[in-house]
Amino acid sequence: MTDEQIIELFFERSEEALKELDIKYGKICLQTSYNILGNHFDAEECVNDGYLGAWNAIPPVRPNPLLTYVLKIIRNISLTRYHKNSAQKRNSSYDLAVEELADFLAAPESVESMFDADELAKIIEGFLDSLDTVSRVIFMRRYWFYDNYEQIAKKVGISEKNVSVKLTRLRKRLKNYLEERGISV
Amino acid sequence: MKEKIAEAMGKVDDKYINEAVRYNPKKKFMYAGISGLAALAACALLIFGISGLNKNKPNTPVAPATPVDSVVCIDINPSIELNVSKSNKIISAVALNEDASVVLKDMNLEDVELKTALNAIIGSLLKNGYLDEAYNAVNVCVENDDEERANELGDEVAGEINSIFNQQDLIGDVLTETTDVDPEVKALADVYGISVGKLLLAQKVAANMSMELEVVVRFTIVELWDLMDAEPTKLILRDEALLIAVEDAGADINEITMLCNKIQVSDGVFIYLIKFVANGNEKYTYQIDATNGDIIKQEYEYGVEVEIPDIDIDIDTDTEEPSEGTTEDTTEDATEDAIEDATEDATEGTTEDEYTPVVPTKPITKKEALAYAYADAGVDEKEVKLDEIKHYPKENQYVIKFTVGMFDYEYLICGSDGSVLDKEIIDKTKDETDEEVEPLTVDEALELALNKAGVTLADVTKYDIKYTTTKTSSSYKIHFHVDKDHYEYNVDAVTGEITEKEHPTPGGPAEKEEPAKPHEKPEPPKPHEKEALKKAEEAVEGTKLIVTVEK
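YS: structure for the whole thing
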């Protein structure tokens, strides 16, 4: 079923919409949530909550592309769940990905205090625009989807070692990019 | 901090997320992406199971014993036509192009349920590398004069493909369309070796982009989908792109040997990929922006031994005819011409833009393939840590990955003659941004030197700056005086590192300059550095006085 057909089902308030959404995109949604939470049970709950969020938003929203829209909802819900769950075991792919980036840009008083998330997002977008496609995909897969190296390697068709090397360079490049814009890191 | 970054990442534009979801690696890397074929064993078994049951039956196409109710065309890159009975059983499966022949090889789908056949076909598509784990676009077209029946069957096929994708952990979209049975459209599709569904899609794109149908039908389904939404774009001629590349290489158009000249769409950008050999053994690869002729990428390989194909290059350098991509003569008007052109292409066997070397049947051994790769890299086998070697029989190519010290090598070796088809060398010690870094400006270098000395420009009474380039580096030599103190710094023009200094020298004469050092001679290049050094040699060498100021 195409995205348009699924969205039509949402507009018709047919519960088939959720079923078709899950058939088409269930796995990537669950994987994204699991990357953050490291727990299948929690991830499934977040995915279901995400579907509910989509159900409430569509209509009037008519997202295009549908997958990106749903993934954003699920990612946000998963991150909220992650922060609420104080007993969360801190070893998910999310922890590893964010920590490696935060460690590299370790200067909380600079980036954190000078820029709010919106401004920082714009700067990161500028950085992403400066990259070639493969590098941009690798960066996004690691720091948006929180994929591990193996998953990224499969996705872009290079070795895990190569992914590791490329990510190291990308972090260095990001650091330079921020420094050039007067953000001391 | 972590939360802030995660929050900021969550706010980046959707286009980056969408790109990361839909990213589809180029064919070269598809090999590595299809490593998890174990999960497809079920499909593979199904394929061979079906094949085994029908061993004595001829391969497709099969003369229909029952009337054909509908024709289901499936396009990914392989184009397959399924003639289906009213009871949704396969009457015959037809390979419309070479890729489809590979997919349907050893399969006999006669009398098989449509659903089962789709399972088998998708299993084979995966097995043969036509689907990947990233993103897939499938075009389904159902031909039936009964619109209701066509829609019903289209939904069923699309639903089944989606369901199989889900089972196989694949992501993709299925676009379904229906059409009446039209012999003329069918005939044109046959000429191009594509399905009616792909032809209809290509016709829409050709009309949208004002491009020749003959060019458009060569795009993949994903590219066609992208082009459906693209802004109409005028493209330069294929030959114009070639002339740009040849001129840039400093070669003579009449002396080159053409290897490849084809148009591609990458991230919505039209690119001519041009490969040729000049002066016997200099291989050039160019990517030319098809909209404006800009050179996007150039690669140069010296000392290659290339089998010279017998292809005539017919370039009319004086031509000022409208671009082949911009002609108004599209779709219906161009149909007859397109049929004629495509037929000519088919009879010639090899077209200029789709040149493929003739591949002998017996491949070289893995050991030989390794030897070719090592020889090209100029490395000793004993130093090599082999990471991977795979042979792809269909293409008769070896993918070889190995590490030597801090260098990662990836080679694509031709399985018939051991020639290097593609390679990538990654220097793990070097930041890949190095080549892209703009050198410091004079002002920036001076500022660094002043900062280092802890003085400002206002304090300086006299200064001079010299810019020196060698084959391997470039730097600013900065002298300045603050009162009676003399300062001297060397500032690396790329890294900004202050590599040498002298300060302060009370009363030291500003004129007391060291004679310019002879340029350092770099160590003999390693084989993998040859290419980079050749480019570096083109850079201007020497020392020049940029500025002298006395206050």
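YS: worth flagging: Chain A is about 75% helix and 0% strand.
IM: good catch. Also Confidence is low (pLDDT under 50) at residues 108-112 of chain A.
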